[in-house]
Structure to design on (420 residues):
């Protein structure tokens, strides 16, 4: 057992990304840097009746590659994705979980919506065949904490374990809270992030009814997600999971782990404004950014890159740009701020896990992925969004923002390790 002291540095040693833009961090990263979109016309069900007909579905994924077939049948697709991302993260970290102290390893993986596909299929069974035909696995399959529990059962992680449910800030909250678990000295290793499988008939119907999703690019799916572009008309939904391996610095160094970067800051606030619409002045997010920087000890002028929430909705992109300018001042115009949702779509509760991984890769590689489909500048969004083509830059400090229904804001701060 490591002689862990509270307050230890927390580092990222593994990245698990499972999205429509690629499975596994290498494939995913290559596609992002090349500006290749994972968005297409929905193929999982008859999309013709829906106003929005595009999304980023996970392709060529077999859950039996990551789980026992019996467990696959007992669990929802959102849990399949989480297990896939967790196994990919552990492989990337070169971490053998049979050789660690199980009581010092934990999991915090959440979902914004949980097992909505299970709700659909089991409700149909109830109405069509009666209550006796409902699966005994319905409840554990649909609840939003079960992915975290199933991962822990698989890898025998007996440390802190719970799920965060905070809409589109879920993944970021999970990573930040896992950082605090390690800093408190309660664990040496944490798997953290989010997972989502909301591309279903019900999921699409609900978001379409809200008029939240893009409808103007059904014939050109890969052009539909266009963060910060003046012609943006709504978000594009994505499925998948993003999970990172966090370790205390002592534990990572003791096992000779490759370290992507240090996780140095985290904050969360609430707009207290509206259940779905952000505060257009970005006050809540500005407070969140300020608190995250203060916690990390990073000056605003040290920030090199922001992976934006950047959903391609009229209000969100405007408010996020305003918040960044409020906090960073003139420095906001000197940094890169891209939205990889232009290629992955919006993975809702999984977005924060995916986008923290993007920040870690940007620090490691010195490449900043682009915001594709940026064609028509919006006067309210006047920062450097890395339009259409990746660029090379030294990234010592990166931020990842996420905002969620309910007015939630969350930011994590990642820094080069060691910082030379």
């Amino acid at each position: 057992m490591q002689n862990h002291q509270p307050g230890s540095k927390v580092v990222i040693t593994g990245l698990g990304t499972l999205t429509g833009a690629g499975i596994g961090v290498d494939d995913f990263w290559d596609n992002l840097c090349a500006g290749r979109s994972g968005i297409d016309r929905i193929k999982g069900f008859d999309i013709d009746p829906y106003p929005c007909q595009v999304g980023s579905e996970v392709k060529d994924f077999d859950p039996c590659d990551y789980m026992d077939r019996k467990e696959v049948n007992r669990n929802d697709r959102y849990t399949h994705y989480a297990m896939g991302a967790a196994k990919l993260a552990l492989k990337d970290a070169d971490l053998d979980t049979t050789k660690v102290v199980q009581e010092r390893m934990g999991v915090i993986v959440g979902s914004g919506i949980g097992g909505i596909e299970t709700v659909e299929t089991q409700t149909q069974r109830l109405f069509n065949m009666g209550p006796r035909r409902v699966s005994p696995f319905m409840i554990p399959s649909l609840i939003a904490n079960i992915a975290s529990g199933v991962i822990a059962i698989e890898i025998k992680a007996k440390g802190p374990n719970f799920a965060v449910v905070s809409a589109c800030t879920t993944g970021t909250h999970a990573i930040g809270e896992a950082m605090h678990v390690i800093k408190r000295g309660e664990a040496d290793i944490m798997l953290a992030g989010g997972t989502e499988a909301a591309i279903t008939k019900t999921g699409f119907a609900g978001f379409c009814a809200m008029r939240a999703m893009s409808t103007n690019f059904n014939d050109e799916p890969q052009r539909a997600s266009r963060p910060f572009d003046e012609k943006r008309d709504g978000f594009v939904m994505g499925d998948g999971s993003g999970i990172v391996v966090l370790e205390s610095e002592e534990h990572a160094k003791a096992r000779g782990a490759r370290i992507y970067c240090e996780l140095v800051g985290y904050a969360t606030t609430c707009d207290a404004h509206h259940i779905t619409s952000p505060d257009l002045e970005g006050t809540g997010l500005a407070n969140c950014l300020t608190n995250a920087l203060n916690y990390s000890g990073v000056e605003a002028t040290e920030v090199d890159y922001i992976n934006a929430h950047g959903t391609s909705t009229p209000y969100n992109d405007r408010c996020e740009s305003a918040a960044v300018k409020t906090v960073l001042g003139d420095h906001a115009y000197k940094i890169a701020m891209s939205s990889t949702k232009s290629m992955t779509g919006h993975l809702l509760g999984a977005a924060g896990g995916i986008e923290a991984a993007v920040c870690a890769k940007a620090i490691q590689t010195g490449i900043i992925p682009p915001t594709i489909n940026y064609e028509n500048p919006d006067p309210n969004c006047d920062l450097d969004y890395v339009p259409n083509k990746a660029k090379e830059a030294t990234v010592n400090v990166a931020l990842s923002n996420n905002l969620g229904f309910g007015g939630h804001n969350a930011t994590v701060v990642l820094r080069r390790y060691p910082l030379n």
About this structure: The chain has two domains: 10-254, 266-415. The chain has 13 helices and 15 strands. Residues 230 and 359 are 26 Å apart (CA to CA).
